Amino acid sequence: MEGCCPTQELILAELETLAPGAPFLALGQTVFWDEPVKALVALKSQTAGYSRRFVAGVHDTDYFAKFHQKGQTKGFKAMPHNDTTTKGLWSAAGEFSALFGSETIVTRDALQAAGAKLGKIQAERPGYLDEITEAWGWRGIVSLSSEQNITAEKPLSPLFPELYDTFDWAIQTSLDLIAGPHRKESDQVAGALRSLVCDISDDRHSLTLASYFQRLLPEMYRITCGSDVDVDTTTTTELLKLNPTSASLPRFDLLRLFLDPQTRSIACKAYNEAISGTEIYGLDRFGVGALPFDLYVPGVGRGTLRLGSRGGLVMTPSPVGFSYKKAPTTPEELATILEKRFGPNCVLVGKAVTLIGMLAREFVFVFHEGASSYVRHSRTMHQKLGIAGHKLELHPILRVKLEPWDALNQCCAWFKLPPPFKRPFGAEEISACSLSARWREVQSVQKQVLVKLAGLRRPLDLIQYLDEAVGGQWKCLASQYVDLHNGMVDLNVKVAAVKLLKTKVVEKTKTAGKERIQAERASGEHWRAKIFEKQPTDAETLERQRLSSSVESAISSIQSLREEWRSLQAQQDEIVRSDEAQKGRLLRKNVAFEAELTRVRLLRDAIVASDGFERAGHRPAAWWFPLVCPDGSWFRETAKNAQFRLEHLG
Q1: Which stretch of DSSP H or E encloses residue 313?
Q2: pTM for this entry
Q3: Among 276-285, 290-299, 517-526, 578-587, which is the least confidently predicted range?
Q4: Residue 156 CA to its chain's centroid (Å)
Q5: pLDDT > 90? residue 336
Q6: How much is the pLDDT for 499?
């Protein structure tokens, strides 16, 4: 979306031509994140005079996140996401972001690329990197048990206390950032949000997480935009239920290509080629007869669907099978078989790449810009199917790009900036208008900080930069470090002078050693030639004495040189081990380490205030809008300036 973009009205008019009557579909795994912001699409479409339905759905066929924590095998826990102890964390149905927060991890790779000495920091401060790499303002709820449940199966009651507490954490963390004359109204909105979350869960013992979210959806849409929004609600377990009644719906046309013996190999090839080179498993990884669809069997679980010539398997945690005399070649035949074996409520879920093509036959997906990385692979698969002569008519995706930080220019709120934002913005407290005007410049400057810090390899260079960029104590520390550095230079000069003398002594010792060998060789040769078992003359006896004296002199010289070397070593040790030298080294080491700690803090702030802040704006939690601007001005301005575009799948 660069340059001059078509208006919202033009995009909606084009959509009316391309997909007349096809309902909008907004699918999300949670109601507490960005999904309800899509209310702006429903409102704009209705204002423009279109009667297109807007369907808000809970994507309840994905597994609820789980995380292994030593010593805990049951319950739920909200956890931060970092690049150390929770590196492998994943959460979707239970993720929450406080105002300005996002799941932007400050990775160790990014820190090392910017010059941070992580090995030294980890050795000196175990656990420090947990905090430094943590995504600011984000928590994700995970199950600590080993059970595998999709969201549709997750009972609300045992999960609700952690769900509410985490939402309360996100609300309170956000409230702590809001200042200014309308803080009282923000408190009232927070109270309404807390009450809403509790009131709708009154009969939580009979609800699943998915049915609870479905109840919340219209209310969250309403509270986000400040008025009722005409939306229908659904879940993927409802949308994708496969039985003889639903099997002929267009959403199962893609399945039809994978069942028909005339097209199955073509469809499988298109799928495998579309995901080639990615981390997505090819069909062969799932076993013989695998299709790119999972089957959810109520009470049993979800697993890859495999079809053979005489029967099929559902690769649930404990696989279940079914038999048939003739392999199904249509969705209708498969639905009849499945209903007979498992009942009428089986759900056929396309794997990531196929799900989009299933529902795009009947709906216009509403995606935020950048959401769903699988779209490009799905497009590739459908293009390959089209080339092979099996094109499916798919509705385009409506992409929505938000710029909520720009839209704060219409909001009269004030913010108390959280720690990672204070230094980049150069303020403790800032108006919404000022934040709106400055955030892009701050982002640019912080990216330059990352580049600058990456070039500072010597401690002295880093400390001098901190003096210039941070100031405060670093002016004193920089001066102290320079003095220590110069003192160590003087010390090194003295040590170098002694080392030079030691080197000369070593060379003399080597020479003396060679002279000793020569003297001993000459003495030995004379002994064998003139003395041993012979009658030596007086001259020969005198020569023997002279040669022996030469050997003793060489030995004495070597001993003197060794004594001289030991004396010089003692001088060197005295210099190096002096109280002054050791104190200087320790102080210099501590200042250098303090500089490294400050470097990673600067890096964390720079990443959170640039990449993290931008990502938070692209997918903001919907409840931020009424909390920050209870009069609705922030949401209205965001909706007004949102950019629409159509993304085709064929």
Answers
A1: strand 311-314
A2: 0.85
A3: 578-587
A4: 28
A5: yes
A6: 87
**Neighbouring C-beta atoms of residue 479, cutoff 10 Å:** 12
Q: How confident is the model at residue 2 (pLDDT cuts 50, 70, 90)?
A: very low
Rounded distance between C-alpha atoms, residue 565 and residue 546, angstroms = 29
Distance CA 110, CA 102 (A): 17
Interatomic CA distance for residues 514 and 505, integer angstroms: 14
Q: Mind listing the pLDDT tens digit for each residue in 145-170?
A: 888 889 999 999 999 999 999 999 99
DSSP per-residue codes, 243-276 = STTTTTSGGGHHHHHHHSTTTHHHHHHHHHHHTT
Contact 47, 206 (CB under 8 A): no
3-state secondary structure 24-56: EEEEECCCCCCHHHHHHHHHHHHHCCCCCCEEE
Query: Over the stretch 91-106, which tens digit does the pLDDT of each residue have?
Result: 989 999 999 999 999 9
Q: Are 348 and 242 in contact (CB under 8 A)?
A: yes
Integer angstrom CA distances of residue 259 from 177, 289, 437, 481, 508:
55, 11, 56, 73, 91
**134 and 101 Cβ atoms separated by less than 8 Å:** no
Q: Tokens in use for 424?
A: 């980049």
Structure tokens at 281: 């498993």
Neighbours of 21 (CB within 10 A): 9
> Could you give the 3-state DSSP secondary structure of residue 578?
coil
Average pLDDT over residues 322-334: 97
Identity of the amino acid at 530: K
